[in-house]
Design goal:
Number of domains: 2
Strand order of the largest sheet: 5-4-3-2-1-10-11
CATH topology of the largest domain: Rossmann fold
Number of helices: 7
CATH class of the largest domain: Alpha Beta
Number of strands: 11
Strand content: 15-25%
Order of helices and strands: EHEHEEEHEEHHEEHEEH
CATH superfamily of the largest domain: HAD superfamily/HAD-like
Largest sheet: 7 strands, mixed
Distance between the termini: 11 Å
Structural class: alpha/beta
Bound molecules: magnesium ion
Shape: globular
Length: 251
């Protein structure tokens, strides 16, 4: 592990429970890691979600100059500079693209019969995140227990993903499973592999000097794309596994 120069983490299911803040224990471990190495989080959420879930939970003295944020599945990169988060790039979707994607999502929801937009949800079901549009079956603020119970075997997300992808030109858009109830669409070729490549380039390291830690590395999972890079990969099943990995990196 000594040759590692960058440790990258998935967020939901790896550093925190879905949409929940980091525990103080996890925040403390991450801050200690940032004293020794560069660290990054790459996940489907928007920047505002990253700030709330991660950055606001870190100890005040955390070394943020060693920390990188890649929201919207790597479609954007932020680094900390002179007291603020500076955008290095963002692969924005145009308004026209957003319209096409939203129409495909609504059509796919109707075709699969899995989401009824006439019924109330926990917050917005379709969220525009700049570089990504996200469909959340139960709404953005659904309780975690309901989210976990909605699609435990991934079957609903597979069906929705396939129906959305079918309605969008594959040369222009990438469609994949996001969190436990969600589907993410970005510009074609934008995924976690893209984000990893861009970050390694930015800080001038080889991909093989980076480690990626995530809980959805299986085929079709939202971490699978990282296998397209030369980064080292460590699978976790839960937050406890992640704590053990950070602890071993610190020892
Ligand atoms: Mg995850």
């Amino acid at each position: 592990m000594e040759n590692l120069k960058l440790i990258m983490f998935d967020l939901d299911g790896t550093l925190a429970e879905s949409k929940q803040p980091l525990t103080s224990e996890m925040a403390g471990l991450l801050a200690r890691l940032m004293e020794k190495k560069r660290a990054a989080v790459i996940s489907g959420g928007a920047l505002s979600q990253f700030l709330k879930q991660i950055v606001d939970q870190l100890p005040k003295k955390a070394n943020l100059s060693n920390f990188y944020l890649l929201p919207t599945s790597g479609a954007a990169l932020y680094e900390y500079n002179a007291g603020e988060w500076k955008k290095i790039y963002e692969e924005q979707l145009s308004l026209k693209d957003v319209g096409l994607i939203e129409a495909a999502m609504r059509d796919a929801a109707a075709a699969t019969g899995l989401i009824d937009f006439s019924k109330p949800a926990y917050g917005e079901r379709i969220e525009h995140r700049g570089a990504q549009v996200t469909l959340s079956a139960l709404g953005q603020q659904a309780p975690i227990d309901e989210k976990k119970a909605w699609d435990p075997d991934h079957a609903k997300r597979y069906a929705l993903r396939a129906q959305i992808a079918e309605r969008l030109p594959a040369s222009e858009f990438s469609t994949r499973m996001g969190g436990s109830t969600s589907i993410d669409v970005t510009k074609h070729g934008i995924d976690k592999a893209y984000g990893i490549r861009k970050l390694c380039e930015r800080i001038g390291i080889f991909e093989s000097e980076a480690l990626y830690v995530g809980d959805e590395l299986q085929a079709g999972g939202n971490d699978e794309a990282v296998y397209k890079t030369d980064a080292q990969v460590q699978a976790v099943s839960n937050l406890e596994d992640t704590k053990k990995i950070i602890a071993s990196l610190l020892s």
